[in-house]
Specification:
The complex is a heterodimer of chains A (297) and B (236). Chain A is α/β, with parallel strands linked by helices and 297 residues long. Chain A has helices spanning 44-51, 73-80, 97-104, 113-122, 136-148, 166-183, 194-200, 218-224, 264-272, 286-296, and strands at 4-15, 18-29, 33-37, 59-64, 67-68, 82-85, 154-158, 186-190, 203-208, 211-217, 226-231, 246-252, 255-260, 278-283. Chain A has a six-stranded mixed β-sheet, with helices on both faces. In chain A, strands 2-1-4-5 form a four-stranded antiparallel β-sheet, covered by helices on one side. Chain A has a four-stranded antiparallel β-sheet with strand order 12-13-11-14, sandwiched between helices. Chain B has helices at 2-31, 42-64, 74-78, 85-89, 95-124, 134-159, 164-184, 202-205, 210-233. In chain B, helix 2 (42-64) runs antiparallel to helix 5 (95-124). Chain B contains nine helices and no strands. Chain B has one domain. The chains are: A alpha/beta (297), B mainly alpha (236). Chain A binds chain B through residues 49, 52-56, 71-72, 76-77, 79-80, 82, 84, 86, 88, 90-95, 99, 102-104, 106-108, 143, 146, and chain B through 1, 4-5, 8-9, 71-72, 76, 81-84, 86-87, 89-95, 232, 235-236.
């Protein structure tokens, strides 16, 4: 028995000859809060749809709770243990808030009435209101309620805070963290809001062009990566061959910016050896790691 | 709970089809003084009436069909949005069950409409029962139900891949094309399912056309099974 809630290996998926996933490898440890980052079209939603059994992979394997994602009993069992918030936040237009809760509850034997009541109050959801009459933010909150109250062991959240006001975003993020901490729920969520991800995630996976280009604990990544800003006396006549560990190098005139993932000291020494170079090392934010990787890729 | 969802989705449609039925009955009934005077050609008038009833059934079958998974409006579908489809697919329910519940409830709705419209036409238009016995009413409604089940199954199959407008018009067009094809290349009359609401109707023959009923029910089952296979393999 391993400790991964999600295990993906060599996943490939194409649409009309266009590769959406190109050999994706991804592991999400049980009990973690994992942020899944990538540009639009990087393959995030395709990955989530494959994990939910909505799409089928062309090649590779995907396991949730150690069970392969295949139609039939496995998938039903997996769905019983997952809370899912879709990117579109669309629910049945024929139902009211209380009707959709009443509809969803019987499918999940571990349904949490306490959480249902708590989020109804916290999100101030109008029980009698029809779903099409709810704002996008309200629909997001309702979807979160429906996902969390399932008593799920794994929450898969596609842009969960989309449409929420800043106060609601804070509330939702706080709840996600406290749920994960109190109940050991694994959270796998995609978001474009890097500050939110940095605020709550303990692990990060960055996907670009259908491949995972960075993965690991957020603390490790932030400890490992450093930025070296180098100002040279004059523009080098030929490009500098930087040592191993310089992940991405950007040069504008006499200024060089290096995102280093290892050998930082050696790289700094190499920079200092250049005539008249001034070198400064900075810690990096998740945003910098993300932007440098996806731009560099 | 899936029954509740399906019911909420189709209840207004059932009401709409019923209202359409009542209109279809009341307008010509009032215009013709309740058909108390016999028309010049009663046989032809009865045939035309049967055609009107069949069209009503066809309309009901195309309006009430659904596959229980796709639920986006055509406008959403055009924008590439998928409505509540993904929420439905995240439930711990097999796709086949989603289809079976939605299609089953829709079929019940269609069969209810067949019975109601049968009663309305039988009572308000004596022409349709010229030379018929009361038992022919039951035979007529039964054969009509078998025929409309086939049309409904085709509509369900189309609903697995098309949005609701495409599915409705697709059904009507497919039936029209099939009818034209069977007129151009006639099948043996005992296997032509359109005969069930035409020359082989119990209102004409006073017997149950078992070969066509069997073909119709066989086709219904086959189309439902194909629809089930399609939803299990489709990607959304």
């Amino acid at each position: 028995m391993n400790n991964f809630a999600i295990e993906v290996s060599g996943l490939r998926k194409s649409f009309k000859g266009q590769a959406a996933l190109n050999g994706l490898d991804l592991n999400v440890p049980a009990g973690s809060i994992s942020g899944f980052l990538g540009r639009n079209g990087a393959g995030k939603t395709t990955t989530i749809k494959i994990l939910m059994g909505i799409l089928k992979a062309d090649a590779g394997s995907a396991f949730v709770f150690g069970l392969p994602i295949t139609p039939g009993a496995n998938l039903i069992d997996i769905h019983r243990r997952i809370g899912f918030v879709t990117e579109e936040k669309e629910l049945y237009p024929t139902m009211t808030v209380e009707q959709i809760i009443r509809f969803t509850r019987p499918f999940f034997p571990k349904w949490r009435d306490d959480l249902e009541q708590r989020y109804m109050r916290m999100f101030d959801l109008p029980a009698r209101k029809k779903i099409p009459d709810l704002s996008k933010g309200m629909r997001s909150k309702l979807m979160l309620l429906l996902a969390i109250a399932r008593g799920a062991e794994l929450l898969i959240l596609d842009e969960p805070t989309d449409g929420l006001d800043p106060v609601a975003v804070e509330d939702v993020l706080r709840e996600i963290v406290s749920l994960s901490a109190a109940e050991g729920i694994t959270v796998f969520f995609s978001s474009h809001q890097l500050e939110e991800v940095e605020q709550i995630a303990d692990r990060i996976s960055i996907i670009d062009r259908g491949r995972c280009i960075v993965s690991g604990s957020l603390d490790d990544l932030k400890a490992r990566y450093q930025r070296l800003n180098i100002v040279l006396r004059e523009e080098p006549r030929s490009p500098v061959q930087w040592l191993d560990g310089a992940e991405y190098v950007r040069q504008e005139g006499r200024t060089v910016s290096i995102l280093a993932s290892r050998n930082v000291t050696a790289l700094a020494e190499q920079a200092r050896s250049l005539p008249g170079a001034q070198v400064e090392a900075y810690p990096v934010t998740l945003k910098e790691i993300f932007l440098d990787h996806v731009r560099g890729n | 709970m899936l029954v509740m969802k399906s019911w909420l989705e189709i209840r207004w449609r059932i009401l709409m089809v019923l209202a359409f039925n009542v209109l279809e009955v009341s307008i010509p009934y009032n215009a013709n003084g309740g058909f108390r005077a016999a028309p010049p050609d009663p046989g032809r008038a009865a045939g035309a009436m049967m055609l009107v009833v069949s069209f009503l059934w066809l309309f009901a079958a195309s309006v009430l069909a659904g596959a229980g998974i796709r639920s986006q409006s055509p406008l959403q579908a055009k924008k590439g949005l998928h409505g509540s489809t993904y929420f439905t697919l995240s439930l711990p329910v097999s796709r086949f069950r989603l289809l079976a519940v939605r299609a089953g409830l829709g079929l019940l709705g269609v069969l209810s409409i067949v019975v109601i419209s049968g009663v309305l036409f039988w009572n308000f238009f004596p022409l349709i029962r010229t030379n018929s016995m009361p038992s022919d009413f039951f035979k007529w409604v039964f054969t009509g139900s078998c025929w409309v089940s086939g049309v409904y199954a085709l509509s369900v199959l189309l609903a697995t891949t098309l949005d609701e407008i495409g599915q409705m018009f697709g059904t009507l067009i497919a039936i029209l094309v099939l009818r034209l094809a069977t007129l151009r290349f006639p099948l043996p009359s005992s296997f032509d399912i359109f005969n069930i609401v035409g020359g082989a109707s119990p209102l004409v023959t006073h017997t149950l056309p078992w070969p066509i009923i069997s073909v119709s029910l066989g086709l219904t089952l086959l189309l439902f099974l194909i629809a089930g296979k399609v939803v299990q393999t489709l990607e959304y």
